[in-house]
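Late entry, written up from scratch paper. The run itself happened at the end of the previous shift, but nothing got recorded in the book at the time, so transcribing now.
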Amino acid sequence: MTRDHVARWGKAGALYDFVASVAFVTPWTGALAMDLLGTPHTTPTRMFATLFGTVVVMWSIVRWLRPERLLITADTIGRALFSSWFAWALWQGETPALAVFLALELFWAAAQWRALLRR
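Output as recorded:
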């Protein structure tokens, strides 16, 4: 497929990441999101969630503004790695709510990978 196809899937993945992560940008909204997910949290947990939320939101904005093949490839590889960590957490008995995020990460990884492979 064309470069535009990669850019469209990359931007769509970036939008998903922004929506899924924006609640974790502050410790207060992150705590609320973790409460809604039924995840126990402490101050250090909230700080790591805030770090995660901030980095993912910034990364999603970069990919939205510059949906280049290299950035989408890096994101796709990151999604595959992140999916393995979700699977590991589920295997360790973490909240089943993670299964929804795992499914979404796998979907976006597959969609972006397919777009990258098509010429």
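The two ends are 4 Å apart (CA to CA).
(Scratch paper discarded after transcription.)
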